[in-house]
Amino acid sequence: MNDLTMQVSRLALVLEEDPDAAATLSLQLRTLGMESRYCRQGQHLIGEVVARRPHLVIMALEFGDHDGFSILRRLAECGYRGRLLLLSGVERKIVRIAERLGQALGLAMLPSLDKPMRLAELRQRLEGEAPDDEPDALHPCRLDELDRAFARQEITLHYQPQFELSSGRLSGVEALVRWAHPEAGLLMPGRFLPLLTPDQNRHLTRRVLQLALEDAHRWRRAGLALSLSVNVTADDLMCPELLSLVSEGRRAFGETPVVLEITETAAMEDELLGSEVAARLHLSGLEVSVDDFGVGFSSLARLQLLPISELKVDRSFVSRLLEDPQDAAIVEAVALLGRRLGIRVVAEGIEDLACLPTLERFGCTHVQGFGLGRPMPAADILALADAQSPIRASSAASGASTGSTP
User: Fold this and answer.
1) For residue 246, what are the contacts with CB-CB under 8 A and spacing of at least 6?
2) N- or C-end of the chain: fewer Cβ atoms within 10 A?
């Protein structure tokens, strides 16, 4: 059953000043199996949200006496838990600010949709809603449940494949945590990570590293050597236990290349301490990656001081690479920066494989995203490695060359 089938009879509220645009959107939603209601004013929308608890809100940023930013705040204040899709009829930078505000307010933001709306693009946005990540369908999590989850070993991992762009080969994986909840099923990290206490977070990091190194050891025994990326917090990096924990795990399960990923903002909070920790990790044979690069406001001078091995270009730039010249310019600049600094540049959020030749021309070295492979259990990684690379398949269909696999 696909995502759109799961959405039959679900309600979408549309806030749009132009009635013709709203009518077009309503027809498109009906085609995709969703009921919709039209709101012309922000106050009307808020009342409908409170009364009907819709699964989706689609809204423009410009209408009447209010703007979309004030409506975003009011949606958060009234506890809206569904998805939110912005209609973009304004400059892309303004839409990005709105998207970031919505995320900061805890709203479930979908990638924005440009006007005029196209059915295929709307379908793509809605297909991005994973059924197991629907907020209203999930069991509310409690701290005592989290403690039991650790005791019962309900914490598990899925792996996002990462490919070398020049050869198309599977080169690494990113470990992504999941909670196999006994009642609610497989829960995404957004449902429980914000609830963790500092002690629980440290316990989770230990558990993730242990599971990931065990899986990497099994892959190596089967003849598949992959780099292993693990997301860590700033607190994790500042904890002396982290280094010994990874070192012990590598001694027990083999010398798997381990990359510790930290978000750009967190990596830059304490210049001296962050540099010291990264240097110690580097001396111990571990690598540090700056995740979501480009969405923060860090100093390039600080970046120069950190002994990092990898930059991951945020998906918000990669997803519109072929449509937005500004996004393309940012990705190209980050790739050039990485090349000059001698570090890998990973493009995240690949959905349309048509962007791969451009990314390679810019100088990106690795890619990952749903278009190449969704997060999967450890057992499926070996099958993926044996299958034809999606990059090679795409290149064969287009007649392009991917070079030679080492």
Assistant:
1) 209, 258, 260, 284, 286
2) N
**In the structure encoding, which two tokens stand for residue 195, read together?**
């609830």
Question: Is 57 in the same domain as 34?
Answer: yes
pTM exceeds 0.90, yes or no = no
Identity at 21, one-letter amino acid code: A
The residues, ordered by sequence, that sit 6+ positions from 253 with a Cβ below 8 Å of its Cβ are 213, 214, 216, 217
User: What is the three-class DSSP state of 197?
Assistant: coil
Measured CA to CA, the distance from residue 292 to residue 294 in angstroms comes to: 6
Is 159 in the same domain as 283? yes
Q: Does 263 fall in a domain?
A: yes
User: What are the pLDDT digits (tens) for 278-321?
Assistant: 677 777 777 878 776 755 545 566 566 677 888 898 888 898 88
In this structure, the answer to whether residues 50 and 84 fall within a common structural domain is: yes
Q: Which pLDDT belongs to residue 356?
A: 95
Query: For residue 402, which of 369, 380, 370, 372 has the smallest C-alpha distance?
Result: 372
pLDDT of 267: 47
C-alpha dist (Å) from residue 301 to 168, 268, 277, 305, 307: 33, 11, 17, 7, 12
Report the C-alpha gap between 239 and 256 in whole angstroms.
21
In this structure, the answer to whether residues 188 and 70 fall within a common structural domain is: no
Which residues are CB-contacts of 379 (< 8 A; sequence separation ≥ 6)? none
- Which residue, of 72, 106, 133, is where some domain finishes? 133
Condensed to tens digits (0 to 9), the pLDDT of residues 242-289 reads 777 777 777 777 778 888 887 655 544 555 555 666 677 777 777 878
Q: At how many degrees (to 10) do helices 325-341 and 92-104 cross?
A: 70
164 in any annotated domain: yes
Residues 404 and 167: beta-carbon distance below 8 Å = yes
CA angle 318, 326, 266 (to 5 degrees): 60
Tokens of 161: 């494949």
Q: How far apart are CA 16 and CA 29, in angstroms?
A: 14
Three-state DSSP at 168 gives coil
> How many domains does one find in the chain?
2
CA-closest candidate to residue 126, choices 49, 17, 12, 292: 12
What is the extent of the structural domain holding 12? 3-133
141 near 347, Cβ under 8 Å?
Answer: no
Average pLDDT, the chain: 80
| Owner of token pair 């399960």 | 253
What are the pLDDT digits (tens) for 24-38? 888 888 888 888 888
